[in-house]
Amino acid sequence: MYERSSVAELAESLKRELNHYSPGGKLPSSRELIERYRVSPVTVSRALARLTAEGLVVTRPGAGAFRAPERPAPARAGDTSWQEVTLSAETTADGVPRAVDASGVLITLAAPPPGVIELNGGYLHPTLQPEAAMAAALARAGRRPGVWGRPPVDGLPELREWFARAVAPTSTAAEILVTAGGQSALTTALRALAPPGAPVLVESPTYPGMLAIARAAGLRPVPVPVDPDGVRPDLLAAAFRASGAKVFVCQPLFQNPTGAVLAPDRRPEVLRTAREAGAFVVEDDFARRMVHADAGPLPPTLAADDPDGVVVHVCSLTKVTSPSLRVGALAARGPVLERLRAIHVVDTFFVPRPLQEATLELVGSVAWHRQLRSVSAELKTRRDTLITALRTTLPGPTLTHIPAGGYHLWLRLPDGTDEAAVVAAALRAGVAVAPGRPYFGAEPPAPHLRLSFAAPAGPAEITEGVRRLRTACDEVLGSG
Ligand SMILES: Cc1ncc(COP(=O)(O)O)c(C=O)c1O
C-alpha cells in the first residue's frame, strides 16, 4: 500500500524548501531526505516524482534531483474573454444549450475539506475497497501477454461472457459492450436512444449524474414519481402518453436516492407500458452488488424478464470496488445494439485493456467473493449505525424507507426547511451531506437530504457525523 499522506506531506515540505535553492541547484540526495524526514525510499521517490510532474524539479539519472529552471514569464497576459461570446452564441438550430452543469455529479466525487466527515460520498471508503486484491490483479494483468495491445472494441470476450452471466441466464457475450463504468454506459445509452430535444422519462427523485447526462445531450427529463415500491406505473403510462417519450431510465433495485426496489407486480407493468409506447427502458442496475447482509433473495434484472429487447441494461463494478476501476457493461438485444456499439466506439474507442485484464483477474480470484461478502456485511452494520444515530440524535427529519441495499439513506426534512441552509450549516459543523434538490428533475415536493454510509471511515465517524448534522439542524430549524 502507498503511504499516501506521507508522500503528500513530503512533497509539500520539499516545495517549501525549494526557495532555498537557486534554479538548477542540486537538492539533497535521496538518502539524506530519507534520514531527514524519516520516510521510506518509496515515499521519497514518489514525492520527487510528484514535484517533477508539477515542473518544479528535474531529475537526472545518476546525478540527482535539481530545482527546475524558472519558467519564462508570458510576453503578455492573455485575454480569453472572447471565449464567453463563442461558447454562448447559438450556432445550431437544435437549441441545445452548450453549457454543461456538472455540479450534481461533483457533489459525490469531490473530496471533502480536511476534517469534514463525508456523508455525501458515492463510493466505498478506501478501507472497504479491495486494495490488495486490486493491486495483485493489476500486477498479474500487467504480465499477461499482449496486455498493452488493442482489445476488441466491444471488450475482452471473457469479460463480456462474465458480464452476460450476471445480467440474465439467457444473455450472451454477443449482447454485451464493456464500458468505462456506469456513467459512460448511461451516456452511450441516452445518446443512442434519443435525439437532442427529445423527452426522456426519469424517476423522481433520481441520480443527478443521469439528469446531467440527459441535459448535456440536449434531452428533456420528464419526472415520474417513485414511491417505496419503485416507479408508479399509472404515472409512467400517463407520462408516456403526455410526452411521447421513447426512453424511460429506471433503477429497479435499491434506487438512488430512495433505496426503493421495484415491486414484483410492477415489473411486468413497467415493461408492458414501455412496450406499448414503443419505448426502451434503460435499466440502471448500479447497486446489485451493494446488497446488505440481511436482505432476502434479490430479484432478477429487468433484462432477465424481457425477451423483446425493451431493456437496455447498465451495470458497473465501481461501486463495490473503487471509483477508479472504471469497468461496467451495456447489455442489449436487437438492432439497438448496433447503434449503441457505434456510439460507444466513436466516443471512447474501448476501455483500456490493462483495466479489462485486471478486472478479469479480480473477479476470477478468491478475493472477489470475500469482497462481496465483506461489503455486504459492512454496509448492513453501517446502515444500522446511521439509522440508530438518526433516531436518537435527530428527531425532526423522517426516514421514509429502510433500504436493503445501496449505500445511502434518504431523509425527508420538515416541510418548509431551507435545505440549502442545512447543507451549508452542516459543512460549517464538519459534515458534508448531499442536498435533495439535484435529485429532482423539476420542483421537489419536499426538502430532503441524502446521507451516505459507505464513504465515512467507520461507524464511529457515522455517529459523529450525525451529531454534527444535529448541530446544523438546531442552527437552521431552532433547537425547540
Ligand atoms: C444510480 C447511479 N448510476 C450510475 C452511476 C455511475 O457510477 P459509475 O460510473 O462509477 O459506475 C452512479 C454513481 O453514483 C449512480 O449513483
Q: Helix proportion of residues, in percent?
A: 40-55%
CATH architecture classification name of the largest domain: 3-Layer(aba) Sandwich
Low-confidence stretches: none
Q: Which homologous superfamily in CATH is the superfamily of the largest domain?
A: Type I PLP-dependent aspartate aminotransferase-like (Major domain)
Sheet having the most strands? 8 strands, mixed
How large is the radius of gyration?
25 Å
The level 1 CATH classification of the largest domain is Alpha Beta
If you average the pLDDT, what whole number results?
A: 93
Counted by DSSP, the helix tally is: 16
The structure class reads: alpha/beta
**Spatial gap, N to C terminus:** 49 Å
Question: Your description of this structure?
Answer:
- Helix 8 (181-193) packs across helix 9.
- This protein has helices spanning 4-17, 30-37, 41-53, 82-88, 103-109, 131-142, 157-167, 181-193, 208-216, 233-243, 266-276, 336-348, 353-363, 366-393, 419-429, 459-477, and strands spanning 57-60, 64-67, 117-118, 176-179, 199-204, 220-227, 230-231, 247-250, 280-284, 311-316, 328-331, 398-399, 408-412, 431-432, 434-435, 448-452.
- It has three domains: 4-67, Winged helix-like DNA-binding domain superfamily/Winged helix DNA-binding domain (Arc Repressor Mutant, subunit A); 103-128 and 369-477, Aspartate Aminotransferase, domain 1; 131-366, Aspartate Aminotransferase, domain 2.
- The chain is α/β, with parallel strands linked by helices and 480 residues long.
- Strand 1 (57-60) and strand 2 form a beta hairpin.
- Helices cover 41% and strands 14% of the residues.
- An eight-stranded mixed beta sheet has the order 4-11-10-9-8-5-6-7, with helices on both faces. The chain has a four-stranded antiparallel beta sheet with strand order 12-13-16-15. Strands 1-2 form a two-stranded antiparallel ribbon.
- It contains 16 helices and 16 strands.
- The chain binds pyridoxal-5'-phosphate.
- Residues 108, 122, 181-183, 207, 209, 251, 256, 284, 286, 316, 318, 323, 328 line the site of pyridoxal-5'-phosphate (PLP).
